[in-house]
Amino acid sequence: MFSSPLKKVLAILILAFLALYIDLPKKIPVKFSAGGMNINKNLVRGDINITTERLTIKKNFDLVLGLDLAGGSHLVFEADTSKLSLDRKKEAIDSVRDVIERRVNLFGVTEPTVQTSSFAGSQRIIVELPGIKDVGGAISVIGKTAQLTFAELGDENDQGIFPTELTGANLESARVEYDQNTSKPVVGIKFDEEGAKKFEDLTEKNVGKPLAIILDTEIVSAPIVQEKISGGSAVISGNFTIEGAKNLAIQLNAGALPVSIKLVEERTVGATLGQDSVQRSIRAGCAGLLMVLLFMVLIYGKMGFIADIALIIFGLMTLALYKIIPVTLTLPGIAGFLLSVGMAVDSNILIFERFKEEIQRRPFGDALEVSFGRAWDSIRDANIATLFTAFVLANPFDWKFLHTSGPVRGFAITLALGIGISLFTGIVVSRNLLRVLIRESEGV
Known about the structure:
Layout: H1 5-23, E1 27-34, E2 37-44, E3 48-51, E4 56-59, E5 64-65, H2 67-70, E6 72-79, H3 86-107, E7 113-119, E8 122-130, H4 135-142, E9 148-153, E10 161-167, E11 171-178, E12 185-191, H5 193-205, E13 211-215, E14 218-221, E15 233-236, H6 242-254, E16 261-269, H7 274-300, H8 302-324, E17 328-329, H9 331-358, H10 364-394, H11 406-441
Parallel strand pairs: 5-17
Antiparallel strand pairs: 1-2, 3-4, 6-8, 6-16, 7-8, 9-10, 9-13, 11-12, 12-15, 13-14
Helix pairs in contact: 1-8, 1-11, 3-6, 7-8, 7-9, 8-9, 8-11, 9-10, 9-11, 10-11
């Protein structure tokens, strides 16, 4: 399909324009005044919103900023480990941290920081949520114990509540559903094999009687059992809003907290760098990029100009990828991007320096192809070594002996993405642009 260099260049340009469209801000103000014509309106970039019976895709392509650039919520919880022995305290705290981390991830927060701390003999969990300004909503999702229990209710003579062996420990999954009769949101739950058998026996025993569903210490629903229910599925109904049902499903899916926790500190964090510092960083980055572009043109002439075009395409594609994934952009993440810009330029420099040697003993077209081929080994080895470094810093398997800091991982992720795109632009984009623009101008 893309056999000729010209077709490849056209495909690259289409890809670059798509990336540019994604990179544009949500609203672009347009103001124009000439003669009797006045235009003052906002051009709005469209989002992806596809909804079918089986598939829902929504994407707004907004750039997600980290805690140091955009602010967010800072929460500190204290765990009650007074009833635990010393050898079990660390295990309990690690378990609390893991549960909170799962809840935060299900909540939709990107690049959160969840870490433990010991303060004056008490065990604390520090949670930082970039972009989350609703502290109360975050606390309601993170801090609840979410202990799910099914209980039998007594009759008129004995009005007690009798918990059964069926609990949240038997839960396999929970998700938001909608009642077919009332269209109100409910939480559908599914039990594992053991829980399904317990639920079947429980419903068979209580046909015609209420069965209480208790979350923590509150009865959220007490439906009348109409018949024995097989298959291990049930529904938690109540006066749920869509957000409330979603939060309950998050808590149930993430698991119950092994020990109770209480909130000891909460605050909304402003951007630590400040708007002025961010603007200065952008200006400094643009100045540095312009110097690199000018350097390439002065040293390598027309070939350097082609490399500059490839570098601009690299920037457009990288920013678009940050929005599509999305990647939470922090100051270390910006540093990772700038480092990958240097790697992208390095590829072209290796190729062009090789070209200077090859042009002395072979025709232009052959020298160009040989330069790319022979420089590839050096480019590949250098980038693979950097990718290994990024892998260690990202620590995707959560190895305890490596760093697990969110900002460090952000640096590693932006660096790895930048290297991957730089390989594409440095080899594929630059090569085909040179084939079409330089070789044709040289009459090759």
